[in-house]
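Risk mitigation, structural track. In case the binding assays with magnesium ion fail to produce interpretable data, a predicted complex structure has been prepared as a fallback.
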Amino acid sequence: QSSGGNGEKVVNIGYSGPLSGAAAYYGENTLNGLKMAVEDINKEGFEVNGDKYKLNVVALDDKYLPNETASNGKRLVQENQTPIIFSPHSGGISALQVFNEVDNFIVSAYSSEPDIVERGNTLTVRIPPSYEGYIEPFSDYAMDNFGKKLAAIPPVTQYGKDWAEAIIPYWESAGGEVVHKASVDYSKDTDFFTLLTNALKEEPDVLFIGGPSEPTAKIVSQARQLGYDGGFIVMDQAKLDEMKNVTGSYEVLEGAIGVVPLIYTEYSGTKEFIDKYREKHDKDPGSEAGYHYLAMYVFVEAMKAAGSVDDAKLIREHIEDGLTNLPDDKKVYDLKHIEENGAIENFIRMGVIKDGEFEEVDVE
Amino acid sequence: MLEVKGLTKRFGGNVAVKSVDYSVQQGKINAIIGPNGAGKSTFFNLITGVHEPTEGTIIYKNEEITRQPANVIAKLGVARTFQSTHLFEMSTVKDNVIVGHRLRTKSNLFDSIFRTKRLKEEEQQCIAKAEESLDFVGLSHVSDQLVTNISQEEKKRVAFALALATDPEIVFLDEPTAGVNPDETDEMAKLIQKMADKGLTICLIEHKMPMIMRLAHHIMVLNYGEKIAEGTPAEIQKNEEVIKAYLGGTVSA
Amino acid sequence: MLKLDGVSAKYGKYLSIKDIDIDVVEGEIVVLLGANGAGKSTTFKTISGLLKATSGKILFNDVPIHQTAPEKIVQMGIVQCAEDRKLFPYMNVEQNLMMGGYIHRKRKAQLKQSLNDVFELFPILYEKRNEAAGLLSGGQQQMLAIGRAYMAKPKLMLLDEPSIGLAPLIVEQMFESIKNINQEGTTILLAEQNAFAALSIAKKGYVYENGQIALQGTADELLSNQEVRKAYIGA
Amino acid sequence: MNVLTNKKVIIPLLIVLGIVFPFVIPNLYYLHIMTLAFIWTIAVYGLNLLAGYTGYLSLAHGGFFAIGAYVIGILTVKLEMGFWLSFLLAPLVTMFIGLIIGLFALRTKEHFFAIYTLCVGYIIYLVIDKWEGLTGGVRGLIGIPLPEAIGPITFQSPTAQYYLAFFIFLLVVAVIYRIVHSLTGRTFIAIRNSEDLALSLGISTKRNKLLAFVLSTFFAGLAGAMYAGFIRFIGPEIAYTTITFDLLTYMIVGGIGTFAGPIVGTFLIVIISQNLQFLQDYRMLIFGPLLTLLIIFSPRGIVGFIQMQLYQRKRKKQESLAYKNREEETNAGG
Amino acid sequence: MELLMQQLFNGLTIGSVYALVALGLTLVYGILHIPNFAHGALYMVGGYITLIMMTEAGLHYILAMVVSICVVGLLSVLMERLVFYPLRHSPPIQDKVAAIGILLFLEALAQFIWGADYRQMSTPFGQVVEVFGLTLTLQRILIVFAAIAVMILLYWFLKKTFTGRTIIAMAQNREGAQLVGINTHKVAILTFFIAGALAAIGASLTSPINLVFPGMGHLVILKAFVIIIIGGMGSIPGAILGGYILGFTESLGATYLSADYKDIIAFVLLILILSIKPQGIFSKGGV
Ligand SMILES: Nc1ncnc2c1ncn2[C@@H]1O[C@H](COP(=O)(O)OP(=O)(O)OP(=O)(O)O)[C@@H](O)[C@H]1O
Ligand SMILES: Nc1ncnc2c1ncn2[C@@H]1O[C@H](COP(=O)(O)OP(=O)(O)OP(=O)(O)O)[C@@H](O)[C@H]1O
Ligand SMILES: [Mg+2]
Ligand SMILES: [Mg+2]
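Fallback model:
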């Protein structure tokens, strides 16, 4: 940490994510959340061991390429002494995990890729919930309301594959049938007529889809054009509210099951965050912004509890305290606790579109 | 030494060379003439392996070489020049010619990387050959100049030197003096004569009749791909058919 | 008709032609002689605007043209038949010729007539009219290039070594054709290696040496000049 | 000749610079970037051998780079082979695959070859991306081990890894130097000049083109293996066309077909693009035009530009000398 | 059977767009003799301009498309004047890299101005129609017919008008074109304008059934390269035929082979064709 102007010290927080190229939009959203947290925190600053600190985000572009993340990581740690580096993609996270224990920094991982916390890396904190909790409730609801025939069209990403590999066995074990399986590459295709024609010829009752919200919404509307009237299981990456912006109304999305969008979430700190975000960016925040906002606060609390702003190990040990000490008005989400492997446990919530309206459905 | 039998080349429906029988006289200057589009260049290209013949055989030193690729034919001792000279403009004349002797060397990648004795020897050999050839064509004085800086006529000589560096026994020259003024044409003719004197067999395409008539020992005339006459310059000059098809009234001009 | 006044031009940094003065009177055939690389083609390129003169003036019917774009110069009536022919290799013979008449594209009948004239001049082109120019033999391409220039019906035709690579019979015919074209009223500036033939049909000539004009005179003067005879006629 | 262009001065100077570099930098991040630059340079040298000297622009180079990386990755991670043996095998396997592809690819020429190889590169990427069982798919391969110690030398520290990369880099530069300045190199250049002419000079263009192609894949594979050993994590994106384009850019900026070009271009751009990082998402707004401008004003790259300047200075000297002589002659004659 | 028909129609739609983009590329190839990587960026800008004209300026879809055609056409011309013209004498690899530079710039610029997110374009032709049991949207029918109309128009222009011929002439020999009195600057400008316009048309037609985002040109352009190679570089009929061949192979391949390997199909097709015919199917150069 370095000294700032008036006796305050500055802690650099590292970020390496896609700020240009195909995934830039996603990268920007994550960075927005992080930056907003830092701005808010810096209004007052925070105190660790009697010293006053402010935060400074050092954000580097890695174009979604792990090797660039690795270079960026080296740079952030060496030049800016960042105790924490945020990375919002699993490739980058893996690349950082190669040396984060040696170079002594926490990887703040925004990815629900299970591998990330299963490698025994002691300085990784996974922010978002694992998707595994969604499998059961989503499937059950879909099967009960629409029928047993599922066509799976997940995106080609690792995330999509993992989802598919989790949901298909469950669907089958619950007595359902998978009638079609293919994957889509959203970085290459945004017209899905060919794909859907093939999927729909099997007359499925439910479509399993997902990926970035916009192309996912596109799949829904094109499926409707082709006469499909069943339900949709939407992977947690896509958000129903964002999908509505593409389809124009929730009517088209009738029967879609997905995670509860941030704007329909009502924890103690959610509203304030949403309002602030809207004002600043003139659009609704997605969960990636919310989680990054939240995570930064958790880290600050952990630093306070640890009594250190630069000892990564110590900070990691105090994440649990960070979660506990988190002020209520910052609770964009209500996080439960951090597990041994670095995964933060979370509540599972699901929503559906019914009669043209969003509706939260109880899980359990 | 080189003989072709029934040589034919079709391009699509076009017959560029039509069953030509011909044999090159060793150690002599053999000329091939004929109207434009008669198939002379194609004839050369067939022998030197640039094009594959449609029909016919080519025999060189009792060995059939009909469908051999150009590089194999060159190794057997058949060299050629092109009408337009492609040289590497940004390197020196000598560097351009050195590679001409590459076909007589054996060094491979291994030799190059470890700079073996063989490589060093062969490099010397190539350099010596290049110098010798440049000397022969009278270009020693420009051997260290970049090719961009030498004159058109000198470039033509470099092309000759390149051909000579391959250690050929027979050389095919396709219009070596096209666009060269009479004064320089004479110089080139002398060079061709000098090559023949050295024991090389020459095959020559030219439209410059005075030069051909003076240089050539033997002339073949092609017209529409067919051989219409063959013989000494004196015979050809008198041949009615040749006059009608090709020479017109300017034989003596 | 055409007047070059102290024209110099260069490729890159080095002067290729220096202080060239040439005067072509309407209706004449004028010959440029010179060794390879002496600067004849460079002069032609400068006249037709492909190369910009670095100094000096070029006047065509008293209008300065040394700053004019090549296509404007063509429209004014100067057409060059270049040494390396510059044909459209994938177009067939007839299309090449029609492109030659580009500036007269509105006058369909005239183009048809010119086309027939060219075919009459070079019957072989008629035979090959549907073949791609790039596949013609060297000599055939040369004829096509001349034919294409003819299609533009120029007032002044620049012929750069038209006899290159042509069979003797054809050369003879070609000089005949040049004479005919000239007699129909086209002024001709001709660069040639074949000095004897060229001077026989020309009115006057210029001899180039190292990018400068070393000698000039009427055709007869040049034909009888010992040095010229020795260097360019080979007798 | 200028001191700075004298080989006898500049080469030892650069080597010394390379050796003392780890001692003069403020932190290890510089070492990381420098090590990467060495690795990229090796790949660019491979590309230059084919595109610059032989005249065949391969756009599959990123793919071969990735093959090298994946071979070492698969051998060490999946088959748990030792690092050094895998490291040895990686470029060889790449070369072998290169040989097979080259046999077909080299039937084409010019743009056909460029696009053909572009497609080959893309297929390599897709294969790596889809063949999960072998390559780990999108997830990639994690946990490539460090090189085992050789006697007392260990490769744990970034400095040791830097010296290892530097050593291999020097070796490659020396080998490339010998190749391009030998009969083999002359043969390649002859092919670039004119294949017809080369054939008529008795050069087997087929064989030599294949040799150049295979060599170029060898260096790509070597660089890929070094990269995998250095980053220790690989994903399919290293096979993507962007890598090829990066390599191409390094080569062109440095000077295609020049000996020093790959080094100059790679180091320059790697350093510039690190320095443009502060621009974040707008850095391509600067980098794109910069690249285009450079190409417009110096098509033969930086090294080509310098060579041209030197050459023209020399020529001017000769010219003015010759001109003077001529003046004198004409004066004497007139 | 119905499935086959539906997929054939899908192939026809995709193929029409491919053909349009490939046509622009092939035209430019004819003049520049380089694969213009920046063409994909033009396609992308075309999509954005139409979108912006509709959302911000409130223009009708068709009007917005006209504006887009003009803007992208001019952008393309600008590119020629500022970059490719100065580079006309340098070897082709240089142009390629310069084109990559432009591509990087335009993408960054688009992201800077319009953001990196996926955007949706609405269309007045969104209606779903059933024809012979096939489900089509009007927009898709529009794509097919508009593309075919544009292609016929272009073909007629190039082959039958003197102005069109000048493009071909210049492609084959720039100086030769000057010597017959063609203003090569004008022709180059015209060509690039047409190429840009084709990219804009292609993008504007497909955007309503796709999404608009900075990277939208990537794969399209890669496939367009495949097409012009298959069709013979610089060949107009080749580009059209190649576009449809690819469109059909993809939609049928996705149906009867594997949807996951749909993208590989194009590239494998190319490798196969070039391995057998190294010069492409229509192996003559020239437009
Ligand atoms: N690659 C080719 N494809 C098709 N036709 C060709 C090809 N090469 C040559 N031809 C045709 O073959 C015939 C003979 O051409 P060739 O070049 O051999 O003539 P030439 O005798 O050398 O004529 P010139 O003296 O004018 O150079 C010509 O009609 C030409 O159009
Ligand atoms: N494109 C060019 N770039 C650089 N230098 C050139 C170029 N064209 C010609 N030159 C040089 O300009 C000078 C004059 O050449 P030019 O072509 O005008 O000669 P020429 O009299 O027409 O000769 P030839 O009889 O060979 O046609 C020569 O030294 C030549 O090397
Ligand atoms: Mg010939
Ligand atoms: Mg000339």
